[in-house]
Amino acid sequence: MSEVKQALAQAADAARFAPSIHNTQPWRWVVRGDRLELFAAGERQLPAHDPDARMLLVSCGAALHHAQVALDAQGWAYAVERPGSLTPDAPLAVITAGERRDADPEATRHLQMLQVRRTDRRTVRDETVSEAVLNELVKAAEQFGARLHLLRRDQVLDLAVAVERAQSAEAADDRARAELAGWVGGERPDGTGIPSSALPDEVPLTTVAERDFQVAGTVPAGGGHDRFATYAVLYGPGDTEADWLRAGESLSRLWLAATEHAVSVLPFSGPVEVPFTREALTRMLGGTGVPYLAIRFGLQDAAQAAPPHTPRLPATQVITIEE
After folding, report:
1. CATH topology of domain 131-299
2. Would you call 189 exposed, middle or buried from its count of C-beta atoms within 10 A (0-12, 13-18, 19+)?
3. CATH code, 3-117+314-321
4. How, if at all, do strands 35-40 and 93-100 pair?
5. Distance between CA atoms of residues 27 and 86, nearest Å
6. What span, in angstroms and rounded, lies between the C-alpha atoms of 30 and 237?
7. What are 173-231's pLDDT values in tens digits?
8. Given 3-state DSSP classes, what are the helix, strand and coil percentages for the chain, each rounded to the nearest 5?
9. Could you point out which of 85, 123, 229, 290 has its C-alpha 20 to 30 Å from the C-alpha of 43?
10. For 250-275, what is each residue's pLDDT tens digit?
11. pTM above 0.90, yes or no
């Protein structure tokens, strides 16, 4: 295998550890010459929760960012195109490798941070994230064209209402309940979904309710609350496939920055999945953009063990290397 193909294959391998809606990992990669092509894996879309594939695109965008960080860490120049096609035979994005350059030590550290990143659903401790760190998260999101709107206290209460209404709507949908049951709980030996080992043992009592997966996990939820958490809405100017893909890149980039500062990140896709609660998020933004996700930022008790990483599909199932 040529040096460039090996580098692209390693980038695709690093992208396997990106966050995705219910850990569906709805992507596949093809290494073709000096190109790394990202495709949507429609068989791992959530038709009941995500009929328009918005969360699939956000998930794939996060994987796309992971691949870029891996190439940076290896010292490769590259260009990225984002056609955003959801058809099976056309790519969502294409990374074309350029010349080899000196590896950036900071990029290597970034890759290491992405490898320790995880979704933590425990309650946060009674200490706020500093304004300086929040400003860094805002700047990080902007690197891929999105914006991060930090919610005021009154807006957090509005978010709580939107989350509750979205959960009620999805709980009343038989298809959505069955879909959730198929992706959550148990040991997840196939390498997808959220195992019980990554879920709290009870739904935490918080102002903004976490998603009720209808399955008790094994992670202690913690005795805290979310009074000291910071909530935000990730948003952007457009509603095209490419915009949602970039939203995923922005999410991954700000998650990287948060991990560097030991800040936990918990995305809320529920209020975006339901049309009337998505409109409520749009009103919180004053009609200035399209909401992509709500997010909680907080600080965890360092003395408590973090939940384990969720499982991943083997590389052979998501990466194809053409001769």
Report:
1. NADH Oxidase (3.40.109)
2. exposed
3. 3.40.109.10
4. antiparallel
5. 11
6. 30
7. 999 999 999 999 999 999 999 999 999 998 888 999 999 898 989 988 887 789 999 99
8. 40, 20, 40
9. 290
10. 999 999 999 999 999 999 999 999 99
11. yes
